[in-house]
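[Structure tokenization] protein backbone as discrete codes
[Encoding] learned vocabulary of local backbone shapes
[Protein] chain in single-letter code, fold in tokens
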Amino acid sequence: MSNRLRALALGLVGATAMAAPAFAVDLDVTCRCVIGGVNSATAEWIENSVIPAFEAANPGVNVRLNQFGGEDAQLTQQLALDFSTGAGPDVSAFDGFLIPSFVEGGLLKSLDEVAGAEVNDWSGWDALSEGSRALMLYDGKYYGIPLGTDVRMIHTRKDILAEAGIDADTWQPTSWEELLDAARAIKAIKPDSFPLQINAGVAMGEATTMQGYWLLLLGTGESVIDENGKFIVESQGILDTLNLYKTVYVDEKLGDQRAQLLADGRNRSFANFRDGVTALLLEGDYFYRSVTPEGSEFAVANRDEVQGWAKVPAQEPGKGIRGQDFVTISGGTGFVLNPNTDSPAEAWAFLSFMNEPEQLSAFQALQPRITARTDVEIPDSPFLTETSQTLLPLTTARPNDPNYNAVSSEIQRMTEAVVSGELSPEEAMAQYKASVTAIVGADNVVSLL
């Protein structure tokens, strides 16, 4: 019997329910989320809404949430180890960009391979937006269900901009130089501050690539790959991007150089923004909805009065990707099934249950966000509504390439070499070229110089 028929039989229309198993079934769920810590709302939602409702609808199935408080890269490493050894949680949070490399490495299977063909009959697929659907799709197969998508911007401390004589409500840089000028003005009145945060280095992992390097590179009119899917390993855009990092962290000390090199650097960047040490921080909308709310570790006092946002400008007007004046990039996370789960039917039932409108609406009540499903709206959140409407038309996405994760690691090493002062931009780019060529092969790279 399909999950939907079971639900109807039990009078639980819209929920995913299963016939009671002959023996008790224990499911483990993992996410990078800790109540009162990182992604607190996600942990609260799963612990206090999804699990109780699912267990009530599915007697004999017991679900436990593993709250993981480490960095994204640490969870990725743990899942790779677990999936390769037949261990790990039955259901796990997962960043969509990792899917190709995990699949090609034999570490992940499509949902229908794990839980059977009834996965394809889930009514929720039709409710996913086209862009969101692609987040967990690879070679025409679904490997997970997306929870939502995002956009990236400059988060601002309006109170500090005002101190520097800048109209915080209307400030919108139209070039890199205008962004630097604002940081310089703040540095002039607060010499001990680090006004500008552009993620760099290895420790921040994908946050360096997505929230830092890629946003700058898009502003030069380039991307990590060309129109033929080849990785660009040498270009003026790469040099200009690395030189901006050098200006910020080495030459003018506008950013916290040390924070880019420490294991907890991203958290330090959050603390800097909270404490007014940093006033301009390039991050995703995640920063607003998960990092700075009241009650969070890095909560910003009087947030909705002092925290604002601006679009990320191209290097110069019209020079951005596709000739844009402003740029952004979107990614997205979701949940996947462990290919080695001992309880595939129950694991799928839980995964689909948590992505039904009722449960997603409960999540939205805790933490409004850009949703994957078109039938679940963002509740009253002017910040998220305004940013999504403004930035989604400007966005782009990471390549659906199994080598991307390894290339991203080289991007992080390249930025770290520059912000640490170890290498010049030219030297770092040469090292990047050699490393990426070794990863993907000479036929899959291109030089634009």
Summary: Residues 1-16 have pLDDT under 50 and may be disordered. Residues 40-57 form the longest helix (18 residues).
